[in-house]
């Protein structure tokens, strides 16, 4: 089997960079230790190896079908969902009380990484887990009792049903309506589009966590409520009745073909019922809990696909002979060398490794923060929360935008072969492309970062971030090999602050259009610098290990390669900030159109 | 029908930027004038509209098949090839004597652009034209008489058969052999892979222009000869006999599915004959004539697909309502605006337009140079030749590398819809990705640019280029609106020279590995600056038209948009050179491995 992730690297991040053992000192996580974490990752790897990775091509080649209103998916989905349910992995991060294992998100994120790297076309369980989490957090006891166990066992599917034909990035324009009934339920009417795993035959029921406007609710985002809308509703006697949710269309997508994306119509027969979750008109804020997790999950999908692509192209580069060294071009008698020895191939591989491991580190940083939010209180909790909120749009965007490029370089390493279906790169290239679009496009994430996260509470979130980074800088300063990189990062932080100062006055003047005009470039700049921090952090951990453990053999290579890749990131990726900052401080306005017809 | 290219822009480039009428002053082109050019483009557009564009999706969905050694392609290929043959478009650029129309390459390039933008999966005729051109230029009178007419009429297919399983980027390792026979033919044995249009049922014969090593020839590139190897050979009585070229494999590709890519085996029965073209052992230099054209052709494919994607996303952005202006977020009563009014969408569209029209301009510059090489003599010819040689790897790389990103931004404009098969973007995204790989990968082009074109004849080629650019700068200096951009470009030229000076010493020391280590980044830098020159050139032409023609309505918009897009390019794209130059001058070596195992 080709390698698709590095367990060694996960262990490095878990234990040496993010010290997961510090979390187990909190009572909430005290049932866990290094062994239970290893067991979870072993059991996840087993499922990934047996139920997912072998079907990577097959789920792409045998797409879901919609016939006579029924959606059939690849036959492997059912045993996979059951295996995940039986292993207790669908809600592993939930509290014991809610049917989970109280597993830290830091470890849960590693599990998601492994599963997604094995086969990103089988994303069903993450959706189920998110839906169950919403019911657990905001639902009544009755809703919990009715739905959660079935969801976590893998017998029922959960979904996030937000998007409508006219309401994609603009959720305030949702029109699906709910009309209160005497029995406490609501009559639901409307349409939802792009609903992932929105219907299929590997489960017995599908539970939609749906955004709906209750009749008479205020306009805009303040009139949106969250509902449970099942495919089959549960009658008083426990039996299931068809709930008038119809699959009216199946999208044919470029990639991630294993998971069906559906167009759903609710209430064609006037008999679709939904049950309110939490209070009326607060649905969007509830959903955002799930969306923030989902955004980090999508970032993880980007990192995971890029990981699988990296190892596939690394293997190819180690095996494929072609040409001779540039300094030995004319030695025709000598055999061809393997292409990993060509500097430009090495560069492409280092780029991939730098993106994959830098992204993963950022995602685990976010996961650790969400654990700390969970177990801390008061001001500490608020600070962790602010930091997590700030990192979330970056953790969604950097791994996906750069992941797309990373997989593309992976394909380039294989040359013409990479473009054929004989190698997995072409599928990974198709699969990863959606990640910069769903769960909020890069534009939306960028506006969230600059327009919201940088400014709320008087800019406290970036202050907290810079304090965190300062800790890493001070550690790095104590190592001669790392000090130059700490100095580089300090300069880059100054650059980010400069740019931010140049932009903030527009917000203060109320000109948000000008303020956010180049938000996507601001995101790119901020992402590069944030991941430079993650690389320095990894560099510190690697250097410490070299000094204290005196590693040999593969272990020595592992740490050497970590430091080498950190250097690659600083020497090749970080300089891109120069051009971005220049543009961001440039005052020429070219993308804000006057009211008349836009000139193109 | 959705627009897939802009005829107005082609006319602008042809007449206002590149003054095609200057070419018709040369006797070789004197049969042509503005009217004949318009007629050619009209007739090309008709074929593109009727025979190609309507089948864009269909040729992707109904791929070629290989069964029992026979390759079947989409039924539309046959009428398309006949129509191209009948219109005299396959060899339109050939001399009258060789069956062509002596059409300037500048116009021929526009024709290729239109055809490819309409449907890049139907690239058969460019291959045929290249093969016929090689026979015309280097073949005997007998070979010409046997093959050229049938090729140009669209009844026979031509191919370029270079790549072998062990010889992709490294052509010196070709092993297909030719053994001289008494009748003057050669017995051919070997295998070729990735042969585009290498066999199919829309033609009666396939003529391979094949690189072969004659038994006993010197090693390496100096022992490679060019052969005509037909699928059916022509007997003395004019009848056709199976020539033992077997289709042993058909590649399943991510895109460009309309054109089959084949694995061919020659001489399975020991009965495959080939005929030498030109002198023995000079095949690679002959093939390079065709390859240089093909490289520019691939650049054109990149620009053309990016063009079709640009217009598709522009149309969507003009029609799709979503959200409100950032400064009017809370005005929920107001209707949604079309997304073209959102700055980030406008930015993505301007990026696409800047890449498409900048690339096209560079490609037409190259085409004009190839016309000038054709009609000039002595030192003038040599200078044009040097300039064309310098621009060729850039004209292959910029439009393809940036084209990939441009199509990706096009998909992003459509959001989730762009990822579905309901819109053409997903296919364009798949189609364009091969262009940075075939006809020499970006790595190969970059090593050619820095390692060869920058240094031959004491660096005369870049000197000539800077002289050409200087002409544009001096023109731009005379317009107040353009002078700042001329100054910017001057600074960028200085940056390129700086970087070049920093790298050349490695070449002088004979350390080509270090010299070329980051050649791909050097290419990126050089490409950005070269296209900045093309944009300034277009800016000058547009400004002149504004001053002299006093344009109104659509015409005024056209020129305004040209200048606006030029500004976009300078303000958003050009700053990227800062980071590239910083990396290229950085002395840290990270991609040259020592002799021991490469650390990854």
Short description:
Helix content of chain A is 56%, strand content 11%. Chain A has 600 residues and is an alpha+beta fold. The longest helix of chain A is centred in the middle third of the chain and has 37 residues, at 283-319.
Low-confidence stretches of chain A: none
**Which range best describes the helical content of chain A: under 10%, 10-25%, 25-40%, 40-55%, 55-70% or over 70%?**
55-70%
Mean pLDDT of chain A, to the nearest integer, reads 96
Which word captures the global form of chain A?
Answer: globular
- Distance between the first and last residues' Cα of chain A: 51 Å
Multimeric state: homodimer
Description:
The structure is a homodimer of 600-residue chains. Chain A is α+β, with helices and mostly antiparallel strands and 600 residues long. Helix content of chain A is 56%, strand content 11%. Chain A has helices at residues 7-17, 20-23, 34-52, 56-61, 77-86, 105-118, 124-138, 141-152, 283-319, 343-375, 378-414, 425-432, 442-453, 456-477, 483-508, 512-516, 519-549, 553-573, 576-585; strands at 65-67, 70-72, 156-161, 177-180, 186-196, 205-214, 225-230, 232-234, 240-242, 245-250, 261-266, 273-277. In chain A, the strands form three sheets. A five-stranded mixed barrel of chain A has the order 4-5-12-7-6. Chain A has a two-stranded antiparallel ribbon with strand order 1-2. The longest helix of chain A is centred in the middle third of the chain and has 37 residues, at 283-319. Chain A is globular, with a radius of gyration of 25 Å. The first copy, chain A, starts with 6 loop residues before the first helix and ends in a 15-residue tail after the last helix. Chains A and B meet through helix 10, helix 11, helix 12, helix 13 and helix 16 of A and helix 10, helix 11, helix 12, helix 13 and helix 16 of B.
């Amino acid at each position: 089997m080709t390698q698709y992730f590095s367990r060694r690297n996960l262990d490095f991040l878990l234990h040496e960079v993010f010290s997961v053992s510090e979390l187990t000192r909190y009572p909430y996580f005290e049932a866990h230790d290094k062994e239970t974490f290893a067991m979870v990752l072993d059991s996840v790897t087993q499922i990934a190896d047996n139920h997912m990775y072998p079907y990577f091509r097959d789920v792409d080649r045998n797409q879901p079908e919609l016939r006579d209103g029924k959606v059939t998916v690849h036959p492997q989905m059912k045993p996979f969902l059951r295996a995940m349910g039986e292993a207790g992995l669908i809600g592993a991060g939930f509290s014991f009380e809610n049917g989970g294992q109280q597993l830290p998100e830091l470890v849960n994120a590693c599990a998601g990484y492994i599963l997604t790297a094995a086969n990103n076309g089988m994303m069903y369980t993450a959706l189920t887990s998110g839906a169950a989490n919403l019911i657990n957090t905001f639902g009544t006891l009755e809703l919990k009792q009715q739905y959660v166990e079935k969801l976590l066992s893998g017998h029922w599917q959960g979904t996030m049903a937000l998007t409508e034909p006219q309401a994609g990035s603009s959720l305030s324009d949702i029109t699906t309506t709910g009309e209160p009934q005497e029995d406490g339920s609501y009559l639901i009417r409307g349409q939802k589009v792009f609903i992932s795993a929105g219907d299929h035959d590997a489960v017995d029921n599908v539970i939609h966590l749906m955004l709906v406007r209750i009749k008479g609710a205020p306009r805009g985002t303040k009139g949106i409520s969250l509902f449970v809308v099942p495919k089959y509703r549960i009658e008083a006697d426990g039996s299931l009745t068809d709930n008038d949710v119809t699959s009216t269309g199946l999208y044919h997508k470029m990639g991630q073909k294993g998971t069906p994306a559906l167009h759903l119509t609710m209430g064609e027969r006037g008999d679709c019922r939904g049950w309110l979750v939490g209070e009326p008109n607060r649905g969007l804020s509830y959903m955002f809990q799930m969306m923030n997790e989902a955004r980090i999950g999508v970032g993880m999908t980007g990192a995971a696909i890029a990981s699988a692509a990296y190892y596939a192209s690394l293997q190819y580069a180690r095996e494929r002979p072609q040409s001779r060294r540039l300094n030995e071009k004319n030695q025709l008698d000598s055999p061809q060398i393997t292409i990993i020895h060509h500097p430009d191939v090495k560069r492409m591989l280092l780029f991939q490794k730098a993106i994959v491991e830098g992204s993963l580190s950022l995602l685990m940083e976010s996961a650790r923060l969400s654990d700390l939010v969970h177990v801390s209180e008061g001001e500490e909790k608020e600070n962790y929360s602010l930091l997590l909120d700030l990192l979330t749009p970056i953790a969604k965007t950097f791994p996906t935008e750069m992941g797309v490029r990373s997989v593309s370089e992976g394909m380039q390493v294989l040359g013409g072969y990479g473009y054929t279906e004989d190698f997995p790169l072409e599928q990974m290239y198709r699969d990863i492309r959606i990640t910069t679009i769903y769960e909020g496009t890069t534009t939306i994430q960028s506006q969230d970062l600059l327009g919201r996260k940088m400014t709320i509470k008087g800019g406290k979130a970036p202050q907290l971030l810079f304090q965190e980074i300062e800790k890493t800088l001070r550690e790095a300063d104590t190592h001669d090999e790392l000090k130059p990189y700490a100095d580089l990062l300090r300069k880059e932080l100054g650059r980010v602050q400069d740019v931010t100062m140049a932009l903030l006055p527009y917000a203060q003047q109320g000109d948000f259009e000008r303020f956010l005009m180049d938000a996507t470039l601001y995101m790119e700049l901020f992402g590069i610098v944030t991941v430079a921090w993650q690389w320095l952090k990894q560099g510190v951990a690697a250097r410490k290990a070299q000094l204290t453990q005196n590693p040999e053999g593969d272990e020595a290579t592992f740490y050497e390669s970590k430091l080498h890749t950190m250097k690659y990131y600083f020497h090749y990726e970080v300089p891109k900030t120069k051009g971005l900052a220049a543009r961001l401080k440039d005052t020429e306005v070219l993308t804000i159109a006057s009211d008349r017809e836009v000139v193109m």
